[in-house]
Amino acid sequence: MRRPSSNQRRLVIFILALITFSMAYYAGISQQPQLQSSPEIQGISISPPTPAPPFELTDQQGSPYGDKQLANHWSLLMLDPSEKQKPSPALIQLLQIHNRMANHPELQQSIHYLYLPRHQTATLDDSLSQIDINIHGLQGEPAKIDETFDHFGISLENTEQTLYLIDPQKHLRALFTQAEDAATIAEDLTKLITSTQ
After folding, report:
1. DSSP letter, residue 189
2. Nearest-CA neighbor of 77 among 178, 180, 181, 176?
3. Which 3 state secondary structure label does DSSP give 114?
4. Quick check: 86 pLDDT over 80?
5. Interacting residues of 180 by C-beta distance below 8 A, sequence separation 6+
6. 3-class secondary structure, 177
7. Alpha helices of the chain — where are they, by DSSP H?
8. How many CA atoms lie within 13 A of 28 on its CB side?
9. From CA 116, how far away is CA 161, in angstroms rounded?
10. What pLDDT was estimated at residue 24?
11. Is residue 126 scored above 70 in pLDDT?
C-alpha cells in the first residue's frame, strides 16, 4: 500500500482545518444573542441604545427626579431650550402626545412624561400633574439645568425642542424634533415600545 504523498497530506490537513474553522464559526454565530431590530420610525432611532446621561433635578412637587428615577418604566423627556412664554409649544406637544397615547391606555400609563424648560418662564403648572400622575415638570438650579441640556447634547445656541424616548433600562432609544407632529410620534412610540415586549 502506497503512503500518501506530502501534497496529499497537506490537502487533507487543509480540508480538516477548513472544516474545523467552519464548525467553530457556525457555533460562535449561533451562540451570539440575536439583536432585536428596531422598527422603522419617522423619528431618529438610536441603535444600539445608549445609556441616558446622568442628571439630578426635582419635579414640580420638589421631589428628587434624576436619572435614577428613569428605571423600570418608559420615559419621554422633552428638553425645551426656547424662551417662549406660557404655554410653551414644546409643552403643548408633549401633552398632545400624552393625549394621542390614550388610544393605547396601557402604554399611556407605562410612560412618564417629563418636561424640562431651560428658562423658568415655561415651567410646568402644578395643576397639570392632576391630568396624569406620570406628567412631571422638572426644575432645578440654572447650572444644573444647563448641565443636563449639555449632557443631552443641546447647546446654548440651540433653540429647538428635542424629545427623547428612554427605556426602562435607562437607555436612549429614539429622539424626535419639532419636525414630527404628535400623532406621528405617538405611532412611533407604539411601534418602539411594543417591539420590545
Report:
1. H
2. 176
3. strand
4. no
5. 42, 43, 188
6. strand
7. 6-31, 89-100, 105-109, 142-151, 182-195
8. 6
9. 10
10. 61
11. no
